[in-house]
Design a protein that fits this description.
Elements lengths: L11 E3 L2 H9 L6 E3 L16 E3 L7 H13 L5 E3 L1 H7 L3 E5 L9 H8 L11 E4 L4 H14 L3 H16 L9 E8 L2 E3 L4 H8 L2 E2 L9 E2 L2 H7 L3 E4 L6 H9 L8 H4 L3 E4 L1 H4 L6 H12 L9 E4 L7
Parallel strand pairs: 1-2, 1-5, 5-6, 7-9, 7-11, 11-12
Antiparallel strand pairs: 3-4, 7-8, 8-10, 12-13
Helix pairs in contact: 3-4, 5-6, 6-12, 7-12
Length: about 300
């Protein structure tokens, strides 16, 4: 939901990494007064941290999946907000999201945190970003820019991103692509990720643009027999995703593994977050589908040949 503010806010709280990235894209880093525990933009270092997760991020993927599933069944929020600190900062704008309860703080968590505090943050000061597609991400950029008082800059950045998106040259071979947002258990990519694959010239074997990611099984993936598998586990960069992909080299029943078409990418920078990085992600995918790595952004995982 979008709220119009009477004046441009001088103190902004961002409770999700993508909003922090967008605020710096808009040149508003100096107005940031606090961030979430997941915000990793270099410019946000040292700012007050207002959230924490009930899930141990250092646990294995299977353990994280189990903890999240148990919390969801119990109706527990995965994140908590430091309401007293939020109240003390008295922000003019708080940015959160309503797309995914697993990914970041939602408006309901903020409301619960400040309900009984003296300042009781007005609903008009909360902007919830809702983009589930590339177009939705650009709409969120515009809404954030408008709420922060820099609407014209938001329009310019959105137009530039759309031009760059339209300029991507898709591969002509239409390879069948499996994107993995988690590997243990496997989850296929959703929201804007299928759009990225399609813009790069690939065909999604699971997942549809604008819909949630979903759980799959390795038997199902083997039956679909994708030409290319791209590991882009949510919340991780290239190095960690390469580790996850390396674990899949043993799955020689998958044609993509046997053909050397198992890849890892930087999910945080280009795929997991609804920010301008998704455009770069589609560019990386288009080159990946041509068999080309981008140093620091994508890597191909190959089985080691057995010695005679």
């Amino acid at each position: 939901m979008t709220h119009a503010l009477d004046t441009a806010p001088d103190r902004i709280i961002s409770l999700l990494p993508s909003a922090t990235d967008l605020l710096f894209d808009l040149g508003l880093g100096e107005r940031l007064a606090g961030v979430s525990h997941s915000c990793d933009h270099p410019g946000a270092a040292g700012l007050p941290v207002l959230t924490r997760s009930i899930v141990d991020s250092s646990a294995s993927q299977a353990e994280i999946d189990r903890a999240v599933s148990e919390a969801m069944r119990a109706g527990l929020a995965l994140y908590s907000v430091d309401g007293e600190l939020l109240d003390a900062i008295q922000p003019g704008l708080v940015v959160t999201q309503g797309v995914c309860e697993v990914c970041a703080v939602t408006p309901g968590t903020i409301e619960a945190a400040v309900r009984y505090l003296p300042g009781c943050l007005p609903a008009a000061n909360v902007l919830s970003l809702e983009g589930r597609s590339v177009a939705g991400i650009l709409d969120d950029l515009r809404a954030l820019a408008k709420a922060a008082g820099v609407a014209n800059l938001g329009e310019k950045l959105a137009a530039n991103a759309r031009t760059r998106w339209d300029a991507i040259q898709p591969v002509q071979t239409a390879p069948r692509v499996m994107t993995l947002e988690w590997v243990d258990p496997p989850f296929y990519g959703g929201h804007w990720v299928p759009e990225q694959v399609e813009r790069a010239g690939g065909v999604n074997v699971l997942g549809a643009a604008g819909t949630d990611s979903g759980r799959a099984s390795w038997e199902e993936i083997a039956a679909l027999d994708p030409d290319v598998i791209v590991v882009m586990c949510c919340g991780y960069g290239l190095e960690k995703n390469a580790e996850f992909a390396r674990e899949l080299l043993a799955k020689t029943e998958l044609q993509a593994v046997r053909d050397g078409q198992l890849w890892a990418v930087d999910a945080n920078a280009h795929f997991s977050r609804p920010a301008l990085g998704v455009v770069r992600g589609a560019e990386v995918l288009a080159e990946l589908l041509r068999g080309r790595e981008y140093v620091g952004e994508s890597v191909r995982l190959l089985s080691q040949p057995t010695s005679a």
